[in-house]
Amino acid sequence: MSIISSVFDLGSIQRDGRRYCIERHTDHLGIVHVVEYLAEAAANHTTIMNTRALRIAEELKEEELKYAVFDAPWDYVLQWTTNNELAVWVREKYKQDKNGTLALIASRILEWIANGRFTDTQVRNAFGLSAAQWTTLKAKMQTLVDNNLVVQSAVGE
């Protein structure tokens, strides 16, 4: 679940000493991520490439986490992250929600439990709660989801 190969090619030197550089980062799925840029004359292309490979992997992971929670079917197979990382990410998003996605996150958590992606115990542990605290939070999540469905299905006259 990472970038497994990175290479770069350099073009000719420009008048101002900069060089055109094309990086190719291949991931574990065989997908090639291409980055093109004009590098400064004294640039260390290997360091730039290696740093970018790490950043690409992190960006792909973050995008996948968002997709898994907000858009993917519940049984989406993770490519860039693990269920443990997903659980931690969801916990942080749930704890820090400020943009109205709390009901969506709660809905996804309950859906994952219902469909077997996670157990109650796994989610409870990710949230760092006792059994009683988890039971209370899960009931609150269900109420939130139910209320959100009522709002979503409301129609005017």
List keywords for this structure.
single chain; 157 residues; alpha+beta; 3-stranded antiparallel beta sheet; 3 strands; 18% strand
Protein model, in words:
The protein has 157 residues and is an alpha+beta fold. It has two domains: 59 residues; 76 residues. 54% of the residues lie in helices and 18% in strands. The protein is built from five helices and three strands. A three-stranded antiparallel beta sheet has the order 1-2-3, with helices on one face. Helix 2 crosses helix 4 and helix 3 crosses helix 5. The longest helix has 26 residues.
Quick overview of this protein structure:
This protein has 157 residues and is of the alpha+beta class. Helices cover 54% and strands 18% of the residues.
Envelope shape:
elongated
Domain module tally? 2
What's the total count of β strands?
Answer: 3
Poorly predicted parts: none
User: Compute the gyration radius: what is it?
Assistant: 22 Å
Helix content: 40-55%
The averaged pLDDT comes out at 92
How can the largest sheet be summarized?
3 strands, antiparallel
Strands ordered across the widest β-sheet: 1-2-3
Instruction: Give the number of helices.
Output: 5
Structural class estimated from helices and strands: alpha+beta
- The end-to-end distance, rounded to whole angstroms, is 51 Å
Strand content is: 15-25%
User: What sequence of helices (H) and strands (E) makes up the elements?
Assistant: EEEHHHHH
